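Recall that a protein's primary structure is simply its ordered list of amino acids. Everything else, from secondary elements to tertiary packing, is in principle encoded there. The following example makes that idea concrete.
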Amino acid sequence: MKISAGAADRFVAQPDAGVAAVLLYGPDQGLVKERAEILGQTVVGDLSDPFNVIELTAAVLKEDPARLIDEANALSFGGGRRFVRLRGAGDGLTKVIEAYVQEPSPDALVVVEADELGPRSSLRKLFEAHAAAAAVACYAAEGNDLLRTVEKILGEHGVAIEKDALVLLGQNMGADRAMVRREIDKLALYVGEGKRATVDDVGACLASSGAVSLDQIAFCAADGNTAEADSHYQKALEEGISEIAILRAMQRHFQRLDWVVSQIETGSNASSAIGGLRPPVFFKLKDRFERQARRWAAHRVQHALSILTEAETACKSTGTPVELVCGRAIMAVSRMS
């Protein structure tokens, strides 16, 4: 069966009794790992249990195809169900796994972990079609889904978060669930149980971890510092942040800059205009943002936005070298300063 995105978390927390095998696949390997562990905990209380938790790899099954069936059907030394976890699976193991799901063990749950699998994948088709199996896609949360994830994880620590701080944190999260959780865990520790995280708390934590790559790309480009902008761009790519996310972060920065510049050109005070932005500018970056607002003219900000919008459109076209297109857009904008 195919588990929808909206039902995925509920299913993982309480899988159907008739499901003997679950496929977790997708580009967010942090989420794949997290969901595998949650599924494991529904079977065994302790994932370090050497008798009821079995970990296999694709290489092991290729050498010994019967190993999956043997492990799932083996009697537990201490009683209880067995949790069999298969990592690095692909279409090359479809027949091996199909042999198991045809006659699965009632006393085991097999969880299969894989990278991205297209609609034509034989492994994915097997899990989506079989009554005793389930396929769960694992994609990085975006937009409101990401914000809900942030609030949920913070809630587990007993920490609340201000709306502006939540937006700021969401704008600077990477694509991988493991990375997201690490940053949120650190913020919760910094704020403390029973407290509420503010914009300054979020800014301080992001800055201390170097996780503000997105903000730094935009700020360096608006400063005209091409070398630093490119350095932060490369770091963001290494962290798994997509080119589209980077371009949108750049657009947000220049949209905010556009609004402040327009306020200044109509006679408003720069500091007051910046103070009206939501989410607010991190206090350590306010002076820098104000210098940019005084340096950039409205028509140049709008031209920069055009470059960034065109780059995003190009990145969505099939066959486009997205890393190159995004890098050129960042360089073009920084040179305008």
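Residues 143-209 form a domain with the Helicase, Ruva Protein; domain 3 fold (CATH 1.10.8.60). The first helix runs from residue 8 to 13.
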